[in-house]
Specification:
Elements: E1 8-13, E2 16-20, H1 27-33, E3 37-39, H2 58-63, E4 70-74, E5 79-81, E6 85-91, E7 95-101, E8 104-118, E9 126-128, E10 141-143, E11 148-151, E12 154-165, E13 172-173, E14 178-183, E15 187-190
């Protein structure tokens, strides 16, 4: 009696097949191999051993034209006050791209995972998973403790990604993160003094 093949194939269309190797290796061996693969070939084709799996890497992710978002500083009037909360937030969200890896069309989608805010006054950067919100529902802010003529807020956003071979419907995670950076327009940090007047 002839033994059945250890691998199984699912036709994803467009010359792409999903290969299930679970019948060929132990779980430990599969974890080192990465489990399942999507490649383009016909079962029985002698080129099977030469066909590399299509994988989107961190470097591929970083090369995508990810829009960093829209960084906002409040109050938005060109100056803020010492020892008062300066509110920061960013408008951003998930983005989807079409690209080509190993001559194969793939779709990649990314979403922000965390934010690192720099306030340019010598304080430690603030990392959050919260993009913040505008006043009065704000959740990310910083009090400047001394006056400055040219303050700026900088923001580094980390993005996590996943990809699918075009049309396969099988989304796979990308190992690693992409980052984007942006800076606010310059603003002044002012001191204020209380004074009694007759008016």
């Amino acid at each position: 009696m002839e033994a059945p093949p250890c691998e199984t194939y699912s036709n994803l269309g467009g010359g792409q097949y999903h290969i299930d190797l679970s019948g060929c290796f132990t779980e430990e061996q599969l974890s080192r191999l990465g489990g399942n693969f999507v490649v383009g070939f016909t079962p029985g084709d002698p080129a099977i051993d030469a066909a590399p799996p299509v994988v989107v890497t961190r470097e591929d992710l970083q090369r995508l034209p990810i829009a960093p978002g829209a960084l906002v500083v409040q109050p938005d009037r060109g100056w803020v006050l010492v020892n008062m909360d300066t509110i920061v937030w960013v408008e951003t969200g998930a983005q989807t791209f079409s690209t080509v890896v190993l001559d194969t069309p793939v779709q990649v989608r990314v979403e922000p995972v965390d934010y690192t805010w720099g306030f340019g006054d010598g304080s430690a950067p603030l990392r959050t998973t919260d993009p913040g919100a505008p006043y009065p529902d704000h959740s990310v802010s910083h009090p400047y403790t001394r006056a400055a003529a040219d303050a700026r807020v900088t923001l580094t956003t980390r993005w996590v990604g996943e990809f699918q071979v075009d049309g396969s419907g099988v989304w796979q995670p990308v190992a690693g993160f992409a980052t984007t950076q942006e800076s606010s327009a310059p603003f002044e940090v002012r001191t204020a003094h209380a004074a009694l007047t007759t008016r």
